[in-house]
Amino acid sequence: MSTWQLDPAHTVVSFTAKHMMITKVRGIFTSVGGTIAYDEADPARSSVEVTIPAATVATGMEPRDNHLRSADFLDAETYPTLAFRSTSIERRGDRWAITGDLTVRGVTRPVVLDTEALGIVKGMDGRRHAGFEATTKIRRSDWGLTWNVGLEAGGWLVSDDVAIELEVAADEVAPVAAAEPVGAASA
C-alpha cells in the first residue's frame, strides 16, 4: 500500500447542471486536496479522501458564483468544505466503482464514482504520477440544495440533477524511513 497526494495543479472537479431546462451551466472547484491509499496489487483495498473548499466554486460568472457560495446553495461561510471519503472499491470490468460518503452543507450521503485508472508514469520530478477519471450524477436536493425558481412556461430554473466529473492526478509520497530507536548503537 502506498500513499499518493492529489496534485492540485492537475486535478479538476467539475459539474454540469441544466439552466432553464434547456441549456447547461458548467463549473469547477478551483482548489482540491486529498490522499489516496493505493494498493496496486489489489486496488479494491485502496481508499480515497478528498476535500474541496466550497468558496472555490467557479462558473465564469461572478454574480452566479457568489450565489452558489451563498446560503441558497453551498453556504460556504457556514460549511466551508465539501468532502468525499471512500467506503468500498469494486472492480466492474476494466473500471472501478468507488462508493463513498459525500458531505455537502453538513449532509452526508453515499455516492458511487464510476472510475477509470489511467495509469502510472514517472513524473518530471522523478516521483511516480498516477491519473484517474471518475463520474457520478447526484440530485442536489438530497444534500439540502433546494433553492429554485419556477419558470412561467413550466419547469425550473436549475435542474435537480447534477453531473460531476473528476480528472485526478496524484503523486506518490515517498515512504518515511523508520526512526532508529533512541539509544540504539550504530554498527
Pick out its properties.
single chain; 187 residues; mainly beta; Lipocalin; 4% helix
Write the layout of secondary structure elements.
Layout: E1 2-6, E2 12-19, E3 23-29, E4 33-38, E5 47-53, E6 57-58, H1 62-69, E7 81-92, E8 95-104, E9 107-122, E10 128-139, E11 158-172
Antiparallel strand pairs: 1-4, 1-11, 2-3, 2-11, 3-6, 4-5, 5-7, 7-8, 8-9, 9-10, 10-11
Characterize the structure shown.
It contains one helix and eleven strands, in the order ββββββαβββββ. It has one helix at 62-69, and strands at residues 2-6, 12-19, 23-29, 33-38, 47-53, 57-58, 81-92, 95-104, 107-122, 128-139, 158-172. The model has no long low-confidence stretch (mean pLDDT 87). It has one domain (2-172): Lipid/polyisoprenoid-binding, YceI-like (Lipocalin, Beta Barrel), CATH 2.40.128. With 187 residues, the protein is mainly β. It has an eight-stranded antiparallel beta barrel.
Quick structural gist:
The protein has one helix at residues 62-69, and strands at residues 2-6, 12-19, 23-29, 33-38, 47-53, 57-58, 81-92, 95-104, 107-122, 128-139, 158-172. It is mainly beta and 187 residues long. The longest helix is centred in the middle third of the chain and has 8 residues, at 62-69.
Q: What is the tally of helical segments?
A: 1
Poorly predicted regions: none
| SSE succession | EEEEEEHEEEEE
Which percent range fits the helix content?
under 10%
Largest sheet: 8 strands, antiparallel, barrel
Task: Name the beta content range.
Answer: over 45%
User: In what order do the strands lie side by side in the largest sheet?
Assistant: 1-4-5-7-8-9-10-11
**Intertermini distance:** 30 Å
